[in-house]
Amino acid sequence: MTADEVERLRLLLSTFRDGSGQFLKRLKVYMPDYLDFERATAEVCGGTTSEDKGVFDVAVPVPGGKPFGISCKMSTEQNIRNQSSFMELSNSHKKFEDAFAREGVDWRTQPDLAGPIIVDLVMSWHTECADRYDIASSKYLVLSHDKDWSEFRLLCFSLDLADPDPRTEVEWVNEGRDGHGGPSTVCGYIMHGDRRHRLWQLFQNSGGQLKYYPLLSWAEWFTEPFKLENPPIKGMRQKVDEYFPGRWPEETITA
Question: What are residue 195's DSSP bridge partners?
């Protein structure tokens, strides 16, 4: 995105603070949610939103060619010591369970075999829509925010999840315990300098949540932190009067 496009997105996201966004009880403020982020991204990029659970949230047309896709993710910033971003890539327990069954792999006892299957499955979803999208030009776009939702940042990542190689460069292990004494997750670790970094985390016993922690240095580009504007809060009745002046039926007082 250009600097002007980032500013447009910032302003669009700010509009959801007028009472139309999600209400954060802890902070007592309205903020954009993930659907608002998708719609604002589509507006800025001249694309359309899928409004469903498709592989890409935004399709951006390209004259004379296939559109490229944007997979939009919102997340809380990770601890600075992790030097990473965060995305939840899936929450489909059945798709992962079916993939393990096809390969005859038990993720609870064979994490070294289950890990590559996890990565292959996610990347296969991109391959399957290559007839409709320019996959090489498609990206992950992350809108991260601090825990108080006071500062935001955009980060763009490649769709290539096979680097580092999940078969030779990632250490796969089971972690945690479920209610029956078995493992609750499959985790994939890489070495980042002298630090062991958790790159992958599949909570197969908790709805198939797949979490991915790409290093910040892998971002193709990122913005400086920015804040959202603080528009006045508009109630629903106020919006009716503004959009449809004079059409609100007043109460009739009878004697």
Answer: 192
